[in-house]
């Protein structure tokens, strides 16, 4: 068996371990962050469970920390009170980015983690199955229920050799994105192996598994080996270590070989993580902004490397350089060893150790300006600037470009300084409020804890059972690879509304089509058409909930991204795929359509009839759902079923 299969076998509750079959697995750990967490806990609260039933659940605050109004602060207080009530760890704002902290303090080889954030596979670097999901799936896992997924194929990424100086693990995942594209990982798990893995540290591995999300993969995983033990030891958690590798005769659906020694610094050009070229090819382009940070590249080792490049130099006068450390551990360590002073001396703008610019919370680049970021996503407009030109690269490329003022291949800098891996990280968990520290282990105390809801925290909308028939207008027709950032943008204006569906729904498709909301409201709902991989990217349930609030009950697409499809189903919205991709051309925006027997056909499992009244054509949509999904959809969503 592969590492992935070994962990699945230990956690399987339902279903067969055959690729494509639905399986239910036991979840050991969950994580939420504030931007998806408020919904997840409102959902958990609605389930009427008295406390979490996982081994460990953590609520992080890292996305909405700007606090331009009362909304974010109210959310934080709500999350803290929920954590206290239900026995959840609470990572206070200021502690850092969920994935970085989870790796440092909680990730455990052999266990399962479900997180309401698409980059949860970051923890796959630790030899655990770590999967991103919608908040409702995480809420169910917190309540002790299984997590359902389609058993993925396991692909082996066989690494050999060693990275050359200035080439980093970021280039490994960029190379895979170049080869496979943003939909190349759909239905797959990427398991890393081969003799090359031993040269990669756990934080380096995490950069790879984290950005596996951009391949559309279910998750990515490394074995747990000596490097894992050393990392856990340095985090004073050696007791969490187990040796976990694949069997000698493990079989994989496919093997992809990467010779680390042949890689060079790569860069993802605007505006998709798979639009890759070598840094060398585009070197010399003027740079306006450089942002170092995000859960992808903000570890202690990353910032030490950046500092070694910046030390004694000055940031180019036309560049604004920002640095957001991944966690309080990272920030405090570089503060204590003096490296923070080198960064400040070079002219870096030190930002809070949070998601910050990665989710458009400040640092929107100037008009037409080039921004080089060490992040994982450069979807159009995500930075906060329309028509932005965001490039993704490794921290050395970012730092070298910040000094030169142009895109720079760090190999021009000569020999890199040696960055030593700490034998011991600085451990201080005082910003992580543990359930055990409070008297809440006493259930009577817990019952007394009042969940504090600010005025921006609105009740969850939900829809009634599936109607017999549906009709309406096609409100918008979109192309391939539409992201959840396109559907429900984030950023300083919209992110504070994550706990208020009526308010946030005013911004659906804001960046793509200003008139969408008007049309949706005038026609009291309707239908949406997407191309391939509709809903890729973030796990935000708002991309399902807000359109539902506007009256959209069915989505048509050539295919749906995994997390978004589950989110739609969880809220009783039908994700229907075309039986023939060419049928996509038979419906246009503005057409009036009719689904005359949707409920009957859906219940029977027969193809769903769609009549295009405007064009006088009829087509049949695929009706492929598991029995479990069918029940949820007929009930109008998972919460209705629970109730
Ligand atoms: C992202 O990177 O897009 C986010 C913001 O972390 C999202 C979660 C969210 O939308 O709140 C994700 O990756 O799931
Ligand atoms: Fe935060 Fe960016 Fe990581 Fe998402 S990708 S969790 S926004 S740092």
Question: Would you kindly provide a written description of the structure presented here, covering whatever features stand out?
Answer:
This protein is an alpha/beta fold. It has 23 helices and 27 strands. The strands form 5 sheets. Strands 14-13-19-18-15-16-17 form a 7-stranded mixed β-sheet, with helices on both faces. Strands 21-22-23-24-27-26-25 form a 7-stranded mixed barrel, surrounded by 4 helices. A 6-stranded mixed β-sheet has the order 7-6-3-4-5-20, with helices on one face. Strand 22, helix 19 and strand 23 form a beta-alpha-beta unit. The longest helix is centred in the N-terminal third of the chain and has 17 residues, at 70-86. The chain is globular, with a radius of gyration of 24 Å. The model has no long low-confidence stretch (mean pLDDT 97).
């Amino acid at each position: 068996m592969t590492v992935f299969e070994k962990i699945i076998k230990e956690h399987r509750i339902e279903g067969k371990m055959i690729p494509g079959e639905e399986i239910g697995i036991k979840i050991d750990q969950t994580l939420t962050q504030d931007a998806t967490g408020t919904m997840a806990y409102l959902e958990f609260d609605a389930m009427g469970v008295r406390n979490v039933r996982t081994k460990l659940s953590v609520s992080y605050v890292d996305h909405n920390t700007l606090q331009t109004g009362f909304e974010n602060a109210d959310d934080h207080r709500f999350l803290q009170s929920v954590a206290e009530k239900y026995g959840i760890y609470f990572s206070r704002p200021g502690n850092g980015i969920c994935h970085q902290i989870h790796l440092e303090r909680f990730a455990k080889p052999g266990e399962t983690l479900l997180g309401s954030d698409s980059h949860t596979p970051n923890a796959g670097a630790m030899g655990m199955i770590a999967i991103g999901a919608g908040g409702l799936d995480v809420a169910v896992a917190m309540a002790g229920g299984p997590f359902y997924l389609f058993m993925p194929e396991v692909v082996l990424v066989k690494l050999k050799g060693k990275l050359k100086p200035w080439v980093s693990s970021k280039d490994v995942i960029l190379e895979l994105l170049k080869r496979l594209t943003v939909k190349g990982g759909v239905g797959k798990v990427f398991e890393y192996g081969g003799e090359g893995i031993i040269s990669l540290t756990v934080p380096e591995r995490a950069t790879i598994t984290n950005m596996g999300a951009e391949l559309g993969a279910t998750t990515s995983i490394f074995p747990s080996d000596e490097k894992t033990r050393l990392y856990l030891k340095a985090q004073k958690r050696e007791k969490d270590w187990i040796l976990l590798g694949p069997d000698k005769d493990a079989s994989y659906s496919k093997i992809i070989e990467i010779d680390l020694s042949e890689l060079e610094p790569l860069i993802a050009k605007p505006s998709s993580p798979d639009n890759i070229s070598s840094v060398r090819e585009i070197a010399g382009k003027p740079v306006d902004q450089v942002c170092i940070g995000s859960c992808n590249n903000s570890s202690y080792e990353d910032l030490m490397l950046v500092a070694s490049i910046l030390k004694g130099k000055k940031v180019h006068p036309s560049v604004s350089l920002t640095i957001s450390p991944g966690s309080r551990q990272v920030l405090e360590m570089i503060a204590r060893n003096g490296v923070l002073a080198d960064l400040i001396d070079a002219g870096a703008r030190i930002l809070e150790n949070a998601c910050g610019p990665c989710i458009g919370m400040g640092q929107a680049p100037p008009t037409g300006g080039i921004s080089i970021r060490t992040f994982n996503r450069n979807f159009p407009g995500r930075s906060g600037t329309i028509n932005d030109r965001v490039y993704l690269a490794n921290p050395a490329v970012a730092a070298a470009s910040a000094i030169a003022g142009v895109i720079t291949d760090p190999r021009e800098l000569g020999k890199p300084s040696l960055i030593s891996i700490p034998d011991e990280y600085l451990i201080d968990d005082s910003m992580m409020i543990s359930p055990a520290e409070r008297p809440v282990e006493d259930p009577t105390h817990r019952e007394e804890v009042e969940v504090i809801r600010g005025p921006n925290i609105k009740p969850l909308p939900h829809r009634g059972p599936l109607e017999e028939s549906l009709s309406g207008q096609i409100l918008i027709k979109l192309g391939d690879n539409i992201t959840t950032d396109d559907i429900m943008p984030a950023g300083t204006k919209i992110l504070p509304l994550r706990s208020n569906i009526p308010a946030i729904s005013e911004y659906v498709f804001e960046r793509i089509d200003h008139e969408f909301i008007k049309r949706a409201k005038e026609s009291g709902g309707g239908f949406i058409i997407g191309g391939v991989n509709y809903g890729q990217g973030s796990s935000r349930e708002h991309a399902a909930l807000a359109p539902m609030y506007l009256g959209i009950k069915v989505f048509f697409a050539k295919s749906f991204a995994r997390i978004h499809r589950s989110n739609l189903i969880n809220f009783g919205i039908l994700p229907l795929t075309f039986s023939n991709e060419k049928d996509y051309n038979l419906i246009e925006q503005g057409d009036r359509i009719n689904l005359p027997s949707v409920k009957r056909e859906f219940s029977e499992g027969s193809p769903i009839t769609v009549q295009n009244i405007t064009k006088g054509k009829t087509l049949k949509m695929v009706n492929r759902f598991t029995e479990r999904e069918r029940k949820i959809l007929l009930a109008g969503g998972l919460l209705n079923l629970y109730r």
